[in-house]
Structures are given as C-alpha cells and as structure tokens.
Amino acid sequence: MSEHVYKLIELTGSSPQSSDDAVRVALTKAAKTLRNMHWFEVTETRGHIEDGKVLHWQVTLKVGLRLEE
C-alpha cells in the first residue's frame, strides 16, 4: 500500500429537502472545482424552523482531498 497525504477542507451545504441532500449539494458543487476528494465527515447539522416545521437544512463537512504526487 502506498503512502498518501490528505488536505482537509471544510464545506457547508444547504437544502430545503433534507440533511442528506445538503451533503450532496456541497459535494456536487465542490467536485466541479476540486480533484481527489476521497472522504467526508459531517461535523455539524443545523436547521431553520418556521411554524414548528423544518424549513431548511444546513450541514458542515470536513472533506479529505488526496494530494497529488
């Protein structure tokens, strides 16, 4: 197994649908400009409440990018 080095970045995605969709939004957008994304970790989940209902989700992620050789 070869040795790898990763850079850690933080992203925050949002969605009115779900927390899972907020994760997908963040990763899909980041994939347009970043290479070698290999893993993510959800570090924070927030939501906006209106009239007792969740109106919007916001999820913060740590994303590991493998540095190129």
Automatic annotation (TrEMBL):
Highest taxon, organism lineage: Bacteria
One Pfam family per UniProt: Dodecin
PANTHER family: CALCIUM DODECIN
NCBIfam families: DodecBact
Name by which UniProt lists this protein: Dodecin
